[in-house]
């Protein structure tokens, strides 16, 4: 038997279709029902479904008044404000193509993006870097807010295969790419409601991320609104230690965050009293087992993890009705078809490592990379889109994530996952965070190196002894380096490649 798992055909997206219309109206929620709560411990701001739709359609009218035509790109240079999701949906509602970007990008970085996508308009927050030189019209947040009261634009209904929005990858494996998604991508996310979230219209879902993070945009906003639930976003200034109190105050039933947020919440120790919480969600990077276990011990609630990527969002996960086995990331969601492939492009036997592939038929799969047809096709092997991640599959379809294909390490001919080494290092009582990478110490010699965050230096001999009692000798790092913080991308994934390059640039390969 080979590692192909088919969870049945996905349901067909209606046609004609508009992603923004689906998000704002498909649930049939009462227009007076709270759709969004921006909450702090002292104050809160609420927007109903009716208010949300009026603001989005008003901004769509305002964008059209800037001379935009359907298909024109809108470069989004907004910070952590409500205008970010409103503008994203408004552009889609009007038939324009939003391109959301991180506010942390520098002028040279966003200049490169602008040169690639050739936007007709930039929407920008105060103090956010802009392309330079910039001959593209720019409007600020004050203008966007003034658009709220404009007459509502009609939704532009299109073929669900039509380009809806463009997002940029984090660039963890090299140059960031412009990923083009169709309107149907939001329809594909419905597979997550049962396959990951356990989401219903009665839920209150709090996402700990900022408005201008794609993880927040999808899991924290678009999905609960599509389902008719209430989304809660922490107000600016709320820190991780305050989240337990906020979760209790807002009667949150589902909590979503990156692993690092869970880790920070647990630092205070002791039980967390969250009577309404059913479970947590995690994505963005591998959730350490110790964090999962500590959260469950503190709250009585499980955390369900999901695996995904910019090109296909999250399509493998554990769920309340179908938890992942110990050590696994989860199962392909209903409607997905995935495989684990060898170097020849054929599926490998169950249990063997290989590259994870997702079927071309998946409605959540990207249309392709912007104006890069050859590069797009290079990511396919027959039916399968190649994720670049190394995994193994159990006979029941459970997926075990082993690491990025270019992150996998070689020790004496054995392939070693950095995650296995990191799980051990993170269990050390003095280690706060860690990453493992294969580095050159000579031109023709590589070793496994461990980079760790701790309050003080830990003796190499002590770390080696700690690892050797928990790892095979060939998996034990040969050198350890204490650093101030691990480099992470926009989606919070560890940039092991950057660690490797910085070490080799400093220590050379002579």
Q: What's the CATH architecture name of the domain at 18-29 and 49-157?
A: 3-Layer(aba) Sandwich
| Percent of sequence in beta strands | 25-35%
Structural class: alpha/beta
CATH fold-level topology of the domain at 18-29 and 49-157: Rossmann fold
The count of β-strands is 27
Give the mean pLDDT.
Answer: 92
Shape label: globular
Strand neighbour order, sheet with most strands: 3-2-11-10-12-13-14-15-16
What composes the largest sheet?
A: 9 strands, mixed
How many helices? The count is: 15
First and last CA, distance: 47 Å
The poorly predicted ranges are: none
Helical fraction equals 25-40%
C-alpha-based Rg, rounded: 23 Å
Keywords:
510 residues; alpha/beta; Rossmann fold; GMP Synthetase, Chain A, domain 3; 9-stranded mixed beta sheet; 6-stranded antiparallel beta sheet; 15 helices; 27 strands; 27% helix; globular
């Amino acid at each position: 038997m080979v590692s192909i798992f088919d969870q049945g055909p996905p349901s067909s997206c209606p046609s004609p279709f508009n992603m923004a219309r689906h998000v704002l109206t498909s649930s049939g929620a009462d227009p007076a029902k709270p759709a969004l709560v921006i909450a702090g411990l002292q104050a809160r701001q609420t927007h109903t479904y009716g208010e949300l739709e009026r603001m989005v359609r008003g901004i769509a009218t305002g964008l059209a008044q800037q001379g935009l035509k359907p298909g024109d790109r809108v470069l989004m240079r907004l910070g952590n404000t409500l205008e970010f999701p409103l503008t994203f949906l408004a552009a889609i509602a009007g038939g324009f193509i939003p391109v959301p970007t991180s506010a942390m990008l520098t002028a040279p970085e966003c200049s490169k993006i602008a040169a690639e996508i050739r936007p007709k308009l930039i929407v920008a927050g105060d103090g956010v870097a802009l392309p330079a030189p910039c001959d593209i019209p720019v409007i600020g947040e004050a203008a966007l807010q003034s658009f709220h009261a404009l007459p509502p634009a009609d939704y532009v209904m299109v073929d669900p295969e039509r380009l809806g929005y463009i997002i940029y990858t984090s660039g963890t494996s090299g140059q960031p790419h412009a990923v083009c998604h169709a309107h149907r991508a939001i329809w594909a996310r419905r597979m997550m409601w049962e396959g990951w979230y356990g989401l219903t219209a009665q839920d209150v879902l709090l996402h700990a991320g900022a408005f201008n993070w794609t993880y927040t945009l999808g899991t924290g906003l678009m999905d609960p609104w599509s389902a008719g639930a209430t989304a809660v976003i922490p107000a600016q200034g709320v820190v991780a230690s305050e989240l337990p109190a906020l979760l209790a105050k807002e009667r949150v039933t589902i909590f979503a965050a990156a692993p690092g947020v869970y880790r920070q919440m647990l630092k205070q120790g002791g039980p967390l009293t969250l009577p309404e919480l059913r479970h947590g969600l995690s994505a963005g990077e591998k959730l350490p087992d110790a964090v999962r276990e500590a959260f469950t011990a503190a709250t009585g609630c499980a955390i369900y993890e999901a695996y995904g990527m910019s090109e296909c969002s999250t399509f493998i996960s554990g769920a309340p009705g179908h938890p992942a086995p110990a050590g696994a990331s989860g199962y392909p969601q209903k409607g997905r078809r995935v495989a684990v492939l060898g170097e020849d492009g054929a599926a490998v036997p169950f249990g063997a490592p290989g590259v994870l592939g997702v079927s071309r038929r998946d409605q959540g799969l990207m249309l392709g990379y912007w104006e890069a047809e050859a590069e797009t096709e290079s990511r396919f092997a027959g039916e399968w889109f190649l994720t670049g991640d190394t995994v193994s599959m159990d006979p029941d379809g459970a997926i075990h994530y082993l690491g990025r294909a270019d992150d996998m390490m070689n020790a004496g001919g054995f392939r070693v996952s950095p995650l296995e080494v990191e799980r051990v290092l993170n269990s050390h009582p003095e280690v706060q965070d860690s990453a493992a990478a294969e580095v050159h110490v000579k031109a023709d010699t590589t070793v496994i190196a461990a980079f760790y965050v701790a309050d003080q230096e830990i003796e190499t001999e002590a770390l080696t002894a700690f690892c050797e009692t928990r790892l095979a000798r060939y998996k034990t790092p040969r050198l350890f380096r204490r650093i101030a913080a691990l480099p992470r991308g926009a989606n919070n994934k560890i940039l092991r490649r950057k660690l490797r390059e910085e070490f080799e640039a400093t220590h050379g390969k002579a």
